[in-house]
Amino acid sequence: MQGAELDSILRQWARERPDLDTACMAVCGAIWRAGRRLSDGLKVNLERYGLDFAALDVLLTLRRQGPDRALSPSEMAAEMMLSNSAMTARLDRLEKQGLIERRRDDRDRRSQRISLTHAGFGLADEVVVGHVAAEDAMLARLTRVERGQLSELLAKVAAVE
Fold it and tell me: What are the pLDDT digits (tens) for 99-113?
């Protein structure tokens, strides 16, 4: 939806419900459209590797820990802002693909440690290059300063009170 279409929608609401300030609809609509565009743009890179966003999240969370580093499922869930049950399904899929491995925690035999396999580490390193390039291309119209401003503004919107 472009500016003229959005202006038309806001005029219609102003006519029908003049008691409401619907300017927030324009902002939220722009955020939703931008989010869809970003998601669609990133899917191209993921599909090249047979991954989805859930798998990418796990791989990159483990990769940014560094080589030969492991996390417990609870630590991963906290880093990724997920429930433990959602984490289990993701880990099961990636383990079957040979991209992660689960090992017993030497300090607590009831717990596991999750790490990337050699193949998973290599895949994560390869995928993140395309991921960053795709994000950078989609933000190309923004200057560095504008990117910083947008990031700060969106962080305010996303902040949980």
Answer: 999 998 777 777 889
